[in-house]
Amino acid sequence: FQYDDDRPMDLVEYKAQGINPYGGWPIWIEDGFTMNQSNAILRMLGIRLGYYTEDPDVAYQIDSMCDFIEDVVDIYFAYQLPHLVFKRDLGDEDTWFSKFWDRYLGVMEARLSDHGKKFIAGTERPTIADFKAAIFWPLIFVDSPENTYPQAVRDRLMQKAQSEAPHFLRWSETMK
Question: What is the pTM of this model?
């Protein structure tokens, strides 16, 4: 799958030019047609590349998870963004755990344990929902000098997942 990764940083300029009427990322421009909104773009790519479905029940499982991730993404990044962008301390750890991880792990564990399949939508192969939901966990556990999550936070999160979300942990290993 070939594409150009062009990341202009001036969203205001893009909006003024009519390229991005919604004012945010991502933007997908193909053959003179501009697409916005991450879930819409992800669905288009999923259909094109075989990571979506024609089954309405499975489509609901996929779309509802993608929408859920949109609902919680700001909560996830609220913990780390002040540190990354403004060089301030990390956000409040307990609030981050209660507002994001309790909710995210709870939804993921319930979804995965309800159907007993390997992937979020109750499928035998990954869908766009798996790719979208997989963004959070690796950011914390990546072995990189750029990883700014304290080891104590990583340990606490791993302990929480081990005790509360075994299906999620199996899924996260599959998604590596």
Answer: 0.86
